[in-house]
Write a structure and sequence with these properties.
The chain has a two-stranded antiparallel sheet. The protein has 6 helices and 2 strands; from the N terminus they run H-H-E-E-H-H-H-H. Helix content is 77%, strand content 2%.
Length: 185
């Protein structure tokens, strides 16, 4: 990656996987917000690696994070200006090739990490759905078992009560007083 190699809009739009019209619109909005693009003698924008990094960041903000295009443009311009100010404070040489390479690598790594994080979150959500489903199924089966046991107990109590009533009736007809037992009457 170098600021010495210029890319044309077709190459950049292919690299970023966006339409040429989208690239023109984004570039015009960035220029209006104060982002400087270099142009050739015909007035066509030339894109250098730092421009591609800025456009990639704009794409990520609008498409992945759902930020409005205007806010994303302002955020990109703000970050570029902050980076330039820091570079001036640190007396970083104007040949930022080495730093651009590192920055681009870091941005790509951050994007990969964000993708991995999204995948992990999705897997965690799937696991939680599975756990919830299994818990609901277990609770349903447990409640069915409890109901069946209660029904069995109720049936057993009713059977016992019926048996006790019959036994009491049988004993009631056979029960004799102590006098009749003694005198046999």
């Amino acid at each position: 990656m170098s600021d010495k190699i210029a890319f044309y809009s077709k190459d950049v739009s292919d690299n970023l996987e966006i339409a040429s019209s989208t690239l023109r619109k984004w570039s015009a909005m960035l220029e209006d917000a104060g982002y400087p693009f270099k142009k050739n003698d015909k007035g066509q924008r030339l894109y250098y690696e730092k421009d591609i990094v800025a456009l990639r960041h704009l794409k990520r903000l609008t498409q992945d994070e759902g930020m409005s295009l205007e806010n994303a443009v302002n955020e990109v311009v703000k970050r570029v200006k902050e980076t330039e100010e820091i570079a001036q404070e640190l007396d970083v040489p104007s040949d930022m090739t080495r730093y651009d390479d590192k920055l681009d690598q870091l941005i790509e790594r951050i994007e990969r990490l964000e993708m991995v994080n999204r995948q992990l979150i999705e897997k965690l959500n799937e696991q939680q759905r599975y756990i919830n489903q299994r818990l609901e199924e277990r609770d349903r089966k447990l409640m069915e078992s409890i109901r069946a046991i209660q029904e069995q107990k109720q049936a057993a109590l009713e059977t016992a009560a019926t048996t006790e009533d019959k036994t009491t009736e049988d004993k009631g007809t056979k029960k004799r007083g102590w006098l009749s037992r003694i005198f046999g009457k």
